[in-house]
Structure formats: structure tokens, C-alpha cells
């Protein structure tokens, strides 16, 4: 990849953002909203009702920051699709396993085996996978987006946060969502990047609190943890023993949730919304309708919170 085609990135310096207690007394302009969409794998389908709520209110974010599934949803929304159009796309893509497989095969030249890389422990090549699954409306570069977007990834070797906001868009989104063991790390420039959730699962600190009403959507699950489904319990009523893949992905979700909780102790967004999606597993993508329904109350909560915030500014 030539230097000219590499996505621009910045490693956010710790301490560069003010704590909420140090925030300027100057309020943000009325209706100037910054939106942070968090990581949480399949739970991130609950971002869709949130985007629909913003559309209903006629509010267009001035900036979107996204991590993992939040980067995927944020990128699609920033490309110009409405929340309702994203809902329809997700339904068509995820309600039928047959349709999902058909879409993947149709977009991949040669053989479906090109998704797999036998030289690495990861199951899928993320750029190939997302190129097959994401809408055609997604522009090739950040410059083509209708809303500015910041995408969070983790630098594997530097063990630091990387914020991608210019250059090719698909590699940035793929890097942000590259969960180890499932998706191969993405190489951008001289960096090897993995899922951004390991450094910043819900990146509301990338939004300017003096310029925006900051909204954070945390889909790591509400405090209290994931509740095992009754049908999966063992006969004596105990919760099921997770298999190795479930244990690894579940551990990653615990990490995401712990990071968000730690961040909130030092800085908070103006509005924090936590859809009740803790009962869904990270790979429950085919439960699209159930997750959309679970996200509906959070969308109404956002509308009420925004009404109150905007009324206070007025």
C-alpha cells in the first residue's frame, strides 16, 4: 500500500481531554450533537433504533466516533443511509442465513475459501468479509462520508489506541472490528491493528464536549452482567459451562464493559444510553429482530433525554 493510500491515523494522547469537571461553562450550540457508538458485537444491532430516533428528531450528528460494531454502524450512517434504511438492510442480511451466504459468495471473486487464511489462527479475513457484507453506499474513503467519522482501533504492538479519520474507509472499519481469533489483524501503514474495544469501547472522549451535546451508546451490556438464557441452563438449574469460543468472546465483552466503567469515573458524556442487550451473546447476529426490539426502549430514552437537554439550552 502506498503512503498516499494509507489511512491517516493519530494516537490519542492520554490527558489531552478535559474531565467533565473541567468543562467550559460555555454550552454547545443548540442541536450540535456528537455521537459515540460503542463496541459489543451483535449487541450493536441495538444502535439502529438509536439512529432512527435521531432521524425522528431531525437531528444530524456533527461528528460520529465508533468502535468495532459501532464503527460499522457509524460508517454506514455517515455514508448517508437513514436509520430505517439500515434497519431494512440488516433485516435482509441477517434474517436468513441463506441470504447471508449468498451475498458473501456473490461478492467474493474465485472461491469462498479466500475468506480464510490458513497461515494464521484467525478464521476470517476482515476486509474481504466486510466488503461482501457492507452496503454499496459505503464510500471508498473517509472524504466521501456525509458526516465526519472517527474510527477506533488498537495497535497490537504499541499497545495503544489509534484513531483513524482519513484515507481508505473499509480497512479502518475492518481494523476496528478485528476481534482476535475470529478476524485477522489489519495492517495499515506500519501498524498491526486489532479490535478497538480493547482500548476504547465507547469513545465519547473523542467528542468535543464544548462543541457538541455528547451522546454515548454503550452496548457492552448494563451493569449486572450477561444473564444465561433459561433454555441453556443445566438440568440442576446452574448456568451452562461456556465452550472455548464463548469463553474467549465473553472475556472480551467483560474487558469492554470494565473499560467503559473505568472511563465513566473520570469523564462522562452529556447523555449515556445503555440498551438492555446483556442477555444476547456476542455472536447472536441472527437474532436481529429480538435485538432491535430490545433497543427500542433505549431509543425512547434518548428522545426524552435530548428533549430535556435541548430545552435546558434554550
Structural class: alpha/beta
Largest β sheet strand count, sense and barrel closure? 9 strands, mixed
What portion of residues is helical? 25-40%
The proportion of strand residues reads: 5-15%
Q: Could you tell me the number of beta strands?
A: 9
One letter per element, helices H and strands E, the order comes to EEHEHHHHEEHEEEHEH
Q: How large, in whole angstroms, is the Cα Rg?
A: 19 Å
> What's the end-to-end separation, in Å?
49 Å
- Our count of helices gives 8
Shape: globular
pLDDT average, as an integer? 83
Q: In terms of per-residue confidence, which ranges show pLDDT below 50 for 5 or more consecutive residues?
A: 1-6, 11-24
List keywords for this structure.
34% helix, 314 residues, alpha/beta, 9 strands, disordered N terminus, single chain, 9-stranded mixed beta sheet
